[in-house]
Design goal:
Elements: E1 37-41, H1 46-58, E2 65-68, H2 97-103, E3 115-118, E4 123-126, H3 129-138, H4 157-172, H5 174-179, H6 184-204, H7 218-237, H8 249-259, H9 270-280
Parallel strand pairs: 1-2
Antiparallel strand pairs: 1-3, 3-4
Helix pairs in contact: 1-3, 1-7, 4-6, 4-7, 7-8, 7-9
């Protein structure tokens, strides 16, 4: 640790996002309007995966379209290489960078997913991933499906915000602090913080089915996207290897419970997840070889969490089938063997 108290070569995430919001009253100049906006995401990215899950749980597919980038990108930006001709069919772009430059030709920040694009102008509105999903829950209520869950209950918000902040700082971002540490000391401290938080979560979830009690909330969505990537990527690639997720009895059961809940596991593409991390992070994995394992078929095994009571959707209902054209390929789900 340096004399000023900061860990040398510690990874720090750039959190300088576009702060504009799409709201029911349009106070930032962006009013809620069905059909106007397009969510650009990538199944590989945990931050974007949150927005895919929340959009599906709330039933916003008919009013907010979605474009998906491929799992890899270069230093310029994510690309639409999954689409015919390598172009997003709505925006006509080859690169997400084009939507950022349409907003600001001198855009100086990172080109990140998720991003919400204004379709008429083809310009990015916001890439503030944490606020995007909260606004889906609170500003788009007029367009939620019948039976949609309340993912950000007003009576729980103070405690939820504290839980989500700890999950973000210690777990969601904690795995990255391990993986991108630039010194042994920075890594050792990041590793200790990560597993201290995972132990705290193991204890918290031992007596309640979900992070905030008997039903799913945004807090569960935020934790889930990291847990789904833990064994395939973070355990080895990011050196988060005190133990695997499958070796946490409570967290592993909790993760399977969520995975088997409509809206969660049906958004997970394991081959894309692995391809993204092992190919893009050439400084960590210079050969860009993508590991074959682990076996993901055990995500569908019984989890036994029903004994804790509760119900994922409370008095509501699960979402229906995945929207046409948005399905994860069958061989990219649990037990699938394809890399691409």
């Amino acid at each position: 640790m340096s004399e000023d108290g900061y860990v040398e070569k510690e990874y720090t995430r750039d959190s300088n996002y576009i702060p504009d919001r799409i709201t029911a009253h349009g106070r930032d100049g962006w009013p809620v309007e069905p059909g106007r906006y397009r969510l650009i995401a990538a199944r590989a990215c945990p931050w974007a995966n949150r927005s895919i899950i929340v959009r599906r749980l709330l039933g916003l597919e008919p009013v907010i379209s979605m474009g998906l980038c491929g799992p890899t990108h270069d230093e310029r930006s994510w690309t639409f290489d999954l689409d015919p001709g390598g172009r997003d069919p709505v925006l006509g772009y080859e690169r997400l960078q084009e939507a950022y430059l349409a907003r600001d030709p001198q855009y100086p920040k990172g080109i990140t997913v998720p991003a919400i694009v204004d379709v008429p102008t083809k310009a990015v509105v916001t890439n503030d991933f944490a606020q995007i999903t909260l606004d889906f829950s609170t500003e788009w209520t007029a367009y939620h499906r019948d039976g949609a869950p309340d993912l950000y209950p007003e009576k729980l918000r103070d405690e939820m915000d504290e839980v989500m902040q700890r999950v973000y700082a210690e777990v969601n971002n904690g795995v990255y602090r391990c993986g991108f540490s630039g010194s042994q000391r920075a890594y050792d401290m990041a590793y200790a913080r990560l597993f201290t938080a995972l132990d705290w979560l193991e204890d918290r979830l031992a007596s309640q089915r979900y992070l905030m009690g008997d039903t799913i909330t945004e807090a569960d969505v935020r934790l889930f996207t990291t847990l789904a990537r833990f064994d395939p990527v973070y355990h080895g690639h990011f050196k988060c290897n005190r133990q695997k997720l499958t070796e946490f009895p409570v967290l592993w059961a909790y993760a399977r419970d969520l995975f088997q809940t409509p809206g969660f596991g049906d958004t997970i593409d394991f081959p894309q997840i692995k391809e993204h991390y092992y190919v893009v992070h050439k400084d960590i994995n210079p050969t860009q070889i993508i590991p074959m394992g682990p076996d993901t078929s055990d995500w569908l095994t019984a989890h036994g969490r029903e004994h804790l009571g509760g119900s994922p959707f409370g008095d509501g209902t699960p979402p229906g089938p995945v929207a046409a054209g948005e399905e994860v390929p069958a061989d990219h789900g649990p037990g699938g063997i394809g890399h691409r």
